[in-house]
Amino acid sequence: MDLESNPQRAAELVREAQVRLMRRVEQLDDSDMRSASALPGWSVGHVLTHLARNADAHARRLAGSLVGEDVPKYEQGQEQRASEIESGAGRPAAEILADLAASQGMIEDIFEQCSAAGWPNGHFLGGGDYGVVDCPAHRLREVEMHHVDLGLGYTPLDWPEEYVDWDLTVLLASTSSRMGSPDTRRAFMAWLAGRGPLDPDTSLKPW
Helices 93-117 & 7-25, crossing angle to 10 degrees? Predict the structure, then answer.
């Protein structure tokens, strides 16, 4: 299923993913928040703060679409994103968790409003590269990927099949542009075609 063309189902999957996330993190303490995540240079607190601000960003775009306004995820761009994550990562665990719960609740409320309105103005880009109607699917990716990045026991084997069916296809389509050299592209293509082994040194730029 193409979840970008089915925001209603994507929103339902986001709600389920956010419930799973909160159940896993709700007992974390200050020491847990300072521990390293699987993302270089980021603690668990960084990842959870990012997930809260990402929820706010998608909610902002969706709320704008309801009133006919095409707004960006972050008013001040990527500098705002980076600053908010860094400044929020060192907060006490209780504050980070309350912030995450509030942000996730807000985006779920916005989903309900958009659903009732028929997901209006889905073509709005907000200065980005995907329409606002795609926000639920992109939020789902953030929650599922970063839940794994927390390093707290949730793994890719836990990803829901509907999510994998959608995002595996999307990520495969991006592989060519994320490879560093022509030879790497050829070797990877041969592996996909069953014409050779996958080079263990093959790497892709982050999505």
Answer: 160
